[in-house]
Amino acid sequence: MASHITLLAGPDALQLLRERGLRGEDVDVVPGASGGPKWLVLAGLDRALFGGLFQNRTRPLHLIGSSIGSWRLACLSQKDPVLALRRFEAAYIDQRYPPKPSPAQVTEQCERILDALLGDEGEADILQHPWARLHVITALCRGMAGLEDTRAQLLGFLLCGLGNLVSRRTLGLHLERVVFHAAGETSPFAGLKDLPSTHVPLTRENLRLALLASGSIPMVLRGVRIPGAPAGVFRDGGIVDYHLDLDFGSGSGLVLYPHFYPYVVPGWFDKALRWRHTRPGNFRRALLIAPSPELVARLPGGRIPDQGDFEQLKDVERMRAWNQVVAESERMGDEFLELMATGRIADHVRPL
Fold it and tell me: Which superkingdom, per the lineage (predicted)?
């Protein structure tokens, strides 16, 4: 078995990989999950995927993400995705906060990161890309979840969590999934019915705000209002779609899913619910690529970084640790490229 990556495939994906191997032109969708600093363990894999696999692409590739996943995919949607990823990585690691920062201070830092990620031409690249079709998931909040007072927000999201214990569908009482996208009439996600969903075209006026909203963690960042979109306050898309347990459409190609875990959690409120499983039909044609236990053991503290690092580590310690995570992540990219070059990916895949 491969020593730095874990490859898991649904039955349709496994059959396609055995017949053809992994080819960029066979991929229909790339999802990107929420998870904050966890994305850093995928940095080397992202560069390998985004820098080579899709170079000769011509037909549309649908990229759908929530929170930090949408920011990663916004890099892929630019002319030079590897350079955009490098800018994103450097700016993300360089976050600095005083003790107990206010939502305004955290929002200011995230705006700085977005500026670096997009650079001078990123917005135009995304909107005019010849084949990348970006979909940014946000959560439109109703009632107390839409207020800026942190105590009211807490109560609003407590109600969300209590209802979610019974059914994910109860989230629709408080939240609406709003997908900002560059797919026009070709979106494979237009028929999502598991939760109330609205689809809004990405434009120059809303792209940056949609990305900011998708990563606006409740009670940590300020909510975002987006002109031209449904009225209300938008927050982190991971609240409704944490790891994206979605109907990825009716295509026959692969859903190529670089992920920091070998499993998928549907929504943010499901993280502690061991009985809340994904819907198997959504992942029949998915190839999930995750760090192996051996790679995770090499990371600082033997774990994937998370939001707790901001509180548990001093800035200098955190930055050193995160840079080490990025360096170790290169092993994932190198191993993936080796399996691609030798045509042995199917030999290392296990059933998802």
Answer: Bacteria
Which regions of the chain are under pLDDT 50?
1
Rounded to an integer, what distance in angstroms lies between the CA atom of residue 68 and that of residue 276? Answer: 23
Give the number of other Cβ atoms within 10 Å of residue 127's Cβ.
15
Token reading at 83: 């350079």
d(CA 29, CA 340): 19
Q: What is the pLDDT of residue 1?
A: 47
pLDDT for res 2: 56
d(CA 126, CA 198): 21
* Beta-ladder partners of 233: 141
Q: HEC string of 63-129?
A: EEEECHHHHHHHHHCCCCHHHHHHHHHHHHHCCCCCCCCCHHHHHHHHHHHHHHHHCCCHHHHHHHC
Summarize pLDDT for 291-340 with one digit per residue, the tens: 999 999 999 999 999 999 999 999 999 999 999 999 999 999 999 999 98
